[in-house]
Specification:
The chain has a domain of about 30 residues. The protein is mainly alpha-helical and about 70 residues long. The protein has 3 helices and no strands.
């Protein structure tokens, strides 16, 4: 039944397109990672550790009604 459905809907093209899309994104991530400067990567690695003083952080403004 699935083979019949695949033959009628040209699902093979969607499978190939999605695989090529996945590989393209993966290659893009690899290129971006390997071309990045070490200083930039260290700055990104420290982002979760660089917190502002909790007293200086303002809460977001209330939006909408509560009721």
């Amino acid at each position: 039944m699935l083979q019949e459905l695949a033959a009628r809907t040209d699902a093979v093209h969607w499978v190939i397109a999605s695989m090529l899309f996945f590989i393209g994104i993966w290659i893009g991530v690899l290129v971006t990672t390997f071309r990045a400067r070490p200083e930039e990567m260290e700055a990104r690695a420290r982002l979760p550790l660089d917190e502002e003083d909790p007293d200086e952080i303002e809460p977001p403004p209330a939006s909408g009604r509560l009721g």
